[in-house]
Amino acid sequence: DQLQQIEEFADDQEFRQQFADIKQQKKEELAEYIKKELDIEVRTDSIFDIQVKRLHEYKRQHLAVFHAITLYNRIKTNPDGDYTPRTIIFAGKAAPGYPMAKLYIKLINAVGETINNDPEVNDLLKVIFLPGYSVSLAEKMIPAANLSEQISTAGKEASGTGNMKFALNGALTIGTLDGANVEMRNQVGEENIFIFGLTVEEIGKLREEGYNPHEYLDTNEELQKIIAQLSNGFFTPDEPDIFQPIINALLNQGDYYMVMADYQPYVDMQRQVEELYNDQDEWNRKAIINTANMGFFSSDRAVREYAENIWNIDF
Q1: Helix 99-116 vs helix 61-77: angle between axes, to the nearest 10 degrees?
Q2: Contacts with 99 (C-beta within 8 Å, 6 or more apart), sequence order
Q3: Of 206, 249, 250, 259, whose CB count within 10 A is highest?
Q4: pLDDT tens, 7-32?
Q5: Beta 147-150 vs 172-175: how paired, if at all?
């Protein structure tokens, strides 16, 4: 609970700068690791946009990839536009018997290879998959994050603890109202977290009424272009049909995890992320507020509540 006391320093210019300096140091350390492991250089002034978690359809790593492709297509269409540099970093493992999760890893790497090797784009955008996720790698990634991706389909995440660790380390969260994101919003204030997408109730209603992913595709040119690129082998010319299972799941098998419905709200919210990031002073203030309010999720509180309410221990 003592951690909350740093919130009073959120408006202290010197404290904010010290907080920002530590984050920058952690970003530089991660950038060095990426260069060493993958021989890819990333801009440390870019948004470090990080999603680390088990690869699964409901966790929607492919939604974050769709956003990366959207940014890529926008830069290619209008190279002289005003863009905020962004480094999108993934890590995590797929279960051995889960082909779709493995295909997501292939998707991330294929998109990354195209973007990272395109000189028109790669000063503004990089997509990285760091292999061999472990506690040691988490120790490098989590403190370096500016943006924490918690974008699972609402109603599917039991709780999640990665989201808490990122916020504790001064990252702002973009996420759905799912799992612990709900409580995190309550702790940090809705103005200090980026919430988007369908709620559990809205998803239930949409399923009852008859959800049709084509309704979202047919009215969205950017989404249409992404699906076309995945279909025609744009990112995988040697294996043009490799992403067909992803397309089938989204368009022909009902899009159970509502990626098509949440795509545009997600992309729109990412624009708000960029606007705030361009105001570094305000971004840092919100990051401090996130860190200060993560004490609520400490195991100390959980043990104390069990002791008081379940075990009836006097202490």
Answers
A1: 20
A2: 245
A3: 250
A4: 999 999 999 999 999 999 999 999 99
A5: parallel
